[in-house]
Structures are given as structure tokens and as C-alpha cells.
């Protein structure tokens, strides 16, 4: 034992001094200085702090809010109508300071917008009515669906919780201030707001609803989603994936038979994911899902199995922070 270490009796003597009633409401620093002025020096200030910490008597004395630890949501969808994500976003009204509240419910497996509502207010009653009507529309059975959302007031309201309990729908919430825990809703909102023709302001509530009806019809029925191997949300949601992929594979086979020299290998059609996660275990997402309206269109070199004269750049390449804020692929120009 080092020579400077306090003996057991010295430690006990120091604790007895610290436990005197007159020192009950004083900090260790005040006790140390008071004893020092009285001609009593027990040990260093830091040693006194370590002694109290060893007894479990050293902690924050102020009434400070202690936030609970929130677990990352881990949700897995293998079929439509297993996990829905919903959120509320603001869109501009006709005048400065006028906002409309857009409620959107999306199926994370098919990316289909299954329900939406536009109002002038954010209301837990409106949210509960929308979700109940959407569950009835898609004939959701008890214990079939998990509904994921962030921690906004309407999402955590008692009214909504009671309505979902009656419907047999399980709730899930993002961690506070972690938008990546709700990537599908966030990505869908960004796709909408960056779409060509999205107005700076809507002239009225009816004007906004008219535009949104057209947008959601396009998004569900015409929008070829990159995250779905260029299928539309409607095709995936209605179980048409295999039929469409078989037709696409037949087209690729005909192209290969006509010009095999243009392909490095027999092409295979790209398939959509069979599992869709929110918060996949072992992964910590650092970016939101890229909106397809901002995504780079595929180049000929990205077609399945097709040859290209462009050479891949081997040097590390990062793109400046923009819509995605992440590193991007890089190719050099063809020779000559």
C-alpha cells in the first residue's frame, strides 16, 4: 500500500467530520475550507470527494430533470399492412404565417400512401379519426398492424392511444430528436416538397387538397420508386411484383439474345427488398431515405449486366453536403 494512502482509521475519522450535523447542507468544498480555518486538515479536497463518492453520498444536489433512456425502435415488415408510419408536416397557406397541417400514413413495405388528411389545425381527434378510417378501409384485423410515429403531441395523445387500443393496433415511437427513426415518412414528405410543380404557397385549403389528390395518385400509381426496384407502390401493395418482374426479365432476355456483346453477363432483373426495417439491429442509420424525385437517373452503365466504356474512379470521392449530405459514387469520363 502506498505511503500516502489513508489508513482505515483516518478514513473513518474524515467521514465522522464530514457527517457532523453542522455540515449537513454544505458542499465538500465549504466543509474543507471550514475545517482548514479551524486548524483541522484531514486530507486533500479531492480525497474527501472520493471518500463521499465511495459511500454513495456525492451527487448532484439540485433538482435537475433526468431524461429516461429511450430504446431504438426495431420494426420489421415482410408484407403490406404490417407496419405503417405516419407523421404531420406543415405546408404554406396563401399568406405569410398561414399554415396547413398535412397528415400522411404510409405503408413502409410498399411505400404506398394509405391515408391522408389536410386541415388547418393539428388535432389528436382528427388523427384518431383518420387512422381509424384507414384501418377500416384496409380491413386491418386486431394485432395485425404496428403504427410507428415520432413523439409529437398528437402522436402521444391519450385520445389516439385509446382509439388504437380499441382497434388492436400496436404503437411505436421514435426516440426524441432522432428523425432517422422515422425515415419513410420523412423521405415521402421530401419527395412531395421537391416535386416539380409544388407551389411556394397554396391559394386555399381546397386548392391544396386538389393538388395533393393529384400528387398522391401519381405517387401511388405512377411513381417508379428506386427503393422498390422501380416498381410503383401500388404494384407492390397489390401483390403484382412477380408478374411485373417476370415481364421485365423477358424483355431483358430478348435484349440479351439480340445483342449479347453489349452485356458482360446475362442480365438479371433487380428485385425489391423482401424485408423492410425501421431501426435494423446492428445498424445506425446516418441519413434519411433519398426521395426519388432527387435521385440521379440510372445511366447505361447501371443497367443489369451491360458493358460500358466508362471507367470506375478508384479514388475516394465525396459529394458536398446537399439534399442527402452523404458520399456519392464517382465515374471518370470515357477515354478520348
Please, could you describe this protein's structure?
The protein has 336 residues and is an alpha/beta fold. Helix content is 32%, strand content 12%. The chain is built from nine helices and seven strands, in the order αααββββαβαβααααβ. A hairpin with a 6-residue loop joins strand 2 and strand 3. Helix 4 runs parallel beside helix 5. The protein starts with 7 loop residues before the first helix and ends in a 58-residue tail after the last strand.
Write a compact overview of the structure shown:
The chain is of the alpha/beta class and 336 residues long. It contains 9 helices and 7 strands, in the order H-H-H-E-E-E-E-H-E-H-E-H-H-H-H-E. Strand 3 (99-107) and strand 4 (113-119) form a beta hairpin.
Amino acid at each position: 500500500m502506498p505511503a500516502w494512502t489513508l489508513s482505515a482509521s483516518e478514513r473513518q475519522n474524515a467521514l465522522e467530520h464530514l457527517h457532523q450535523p453542522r455540515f449537513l447542507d454544505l458542499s465538500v468544498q465549504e466543509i474543507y475550507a471550514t475545517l482548514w480555518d479551524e486548524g483541522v486538515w484531514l486530507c486533500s479536497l479531492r480525497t474527501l470527494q472520493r471518500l463521499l463518492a465511495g459511500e454513495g453520498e456525492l451527487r448532484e444536489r439540485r433538482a435537475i430533470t433526468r431524461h429516461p433512456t429511450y430504446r431504438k425502435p426495431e420494426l420489421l415488415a415482410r408484407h403490406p399492412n404490417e407496419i405503417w408510419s405516419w407523421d404531420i408536416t406543415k405546408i404554406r397557406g396563401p399568406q405569410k404565417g398561414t399554415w396547413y397541417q398535412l397528415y400522411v400514413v404510409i405503408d413502409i413495405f410498399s411505400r404506398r400512401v394509405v391515408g391522408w388528411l389536410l386541415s388547418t389545425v393539428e388535432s389528436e381527434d382528427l388523427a384518431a379519426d383518420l387512422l381509424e378510417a384507414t384501418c377500416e378501409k384496409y380491413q386491418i384485423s386486431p394485432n395485425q398492424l404496428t403504427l410507428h410515429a415520432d413523439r409529437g403531441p398528437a402522436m402521444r395523445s391519450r385520445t389516439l392511444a385509446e382509439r388504437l387500443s380499441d382497434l388492436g393496433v400496436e404503437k411505436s415511437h421514435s426516440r426524441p430528436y432522432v428523425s432517422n427513426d422515422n425515415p419513410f415518412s420523412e423521405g415521402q414528405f421530401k419527395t412531395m416538397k421537391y416535386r416539380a410543380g409544388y407551389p411556394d404557397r397554396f391559394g386555399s385549403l381546397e386548392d391544396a387538397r386538389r393538388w395533393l389528390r393529384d400528387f398522391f395518385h401519381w405517387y401511388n400509381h405512377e411513381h417508379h420508386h428506386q427503393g422498390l426496384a422501380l416498381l410503383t407502390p401500388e404494384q407492390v401493395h397489390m401483390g403484382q411484383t412477380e408478374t411485373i418482374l417476370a415481364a421485365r426479365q423477358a424483355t431483358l432476355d430478348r435484349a440479351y439474345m439480340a445483342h449479347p456483346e453489349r452485356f458482360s453477363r446475362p442480365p438479371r432483373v433487380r428485385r425489391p427488398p423482401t424485408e423492410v426495417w425501421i431501426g435494423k439491429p446492428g445498424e445506425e442509420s446516418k441519413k434519411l431515405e433519398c426521395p426519388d424525385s432527387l435521385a440521379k437517373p440510372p445511366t447505361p452503365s447501371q443497367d443489369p449486366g451491360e458493358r460500358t466504356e466508362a471507367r470506375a474512379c478508384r479514388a475516394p470521392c465525396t459529394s458536398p453536403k446537399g439534399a442527402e449530405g452523404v458520399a456519392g459514387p464517382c465515374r471518370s469520363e470515357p477515354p478520348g
